[in-house]
Write a structure and sequence with these properties.
The protein is of the alpha+beta class. It has helices at 70-84, 88-91, 109-120, 129-135, 142-150, 178-187; strands at residues 15-19, 26-31, 34-39, 59-62, 127-128, 163-164. The strands form two sheets. Strands 3-2-1-4 form a four-stranded antiparallel β-sheet, with helices on one face. It has a two-stranded parallel sheet with strand order 5-6. The structure holds zinc ion. Residues 10, 31, 33, 36, 100 line the site of zinc ion.
Length: 193
């Protein structure tokens, strides 16, 4: 049998979009297949974190012409619901924007961790690194799970902020955004940290 090379789903041009949010300006990049990245303000840290829950989520700008791809529109709506009332994401429910990295025919460990996390750990829930490794049917992969979290390209939607240590909050953005992690969990109704 000849080896059939599967065509990469990412064929479109990747564009950048910015959205206002209670955390500050969120930058999203996306192709027509889905989101590539969702990033919080680059200089956000525990020293300057000053959330404004009254700040609505709006599309601020788009580099390039034309209508944003569906994933960006879905992302905008998802974030609007998330910052208003995260419980509604599962109650309504709100469809999660497509993520380009997860639309591959041959996902690696990281992609599978991101998928399982996004599919199974909803707003108001937390999971330890160890329990997530168990859920991957790979209990020895705690460090690999940690690595997948610190390399998560699509924050919030792949909810790495819900992954905690067995003895505490665990790091967020290499330990520079602990207040952000705590705020997000509080916002979702998790108050134990
Ligand atoms: Zn893509």
């Amino acid at each position: 049998m000849p080896v059939v090379k599967t065509k990469d789903v990412c064929v479109g041009e990747v564009r950048e979009y910015q959205m206002s949010s209670p955390l500050g300006t969120i930058t999203v990049t996306a192709c027509t297949s889905g989101l590539h990245t969702l990033s919080q303000p680059p200089h956000l840290s525990d020293e300057n974190f000053s959330p404004n829950i009254r700040q609505e989520v709006e599309l601020l700008s788009a580099k390039g012409e034309g209508d944003p791809p569906q994933a960006v529109k879905s992302c905008l709506h998802w974030l609007q619901v998330y910052f208003k009332d995260p419980a509604q994401l599962t109650q309504i429910p709100v469809s999660r924007p497509n993520i380009c990295h997860l639309h591959t025919n041959n996902p690696g460990f990281r992609e599978r961790v991101w998928q399982v996390l996004a599919d199974t750990v909803g707003p108001g829930e937390v999971i330890t690194y160890g329990a997530l490794a168990d859920r991957m049917k790979n209990p020895g992969a705690v460090r690999a799970v940690g690595s997948a979290m610190s390399n998560n390209p699509v924050g919030l939607i792949v909810p790495c902020h819900r992954v905690i240590r067995s003895n505490g909050l665990g790091l967020y953005h290499h330990g520079q955004r602990q207040m952000v992690k705590r705020w997000l969990l509080n916002h979702e109704g998790v108050h134990k940290f």
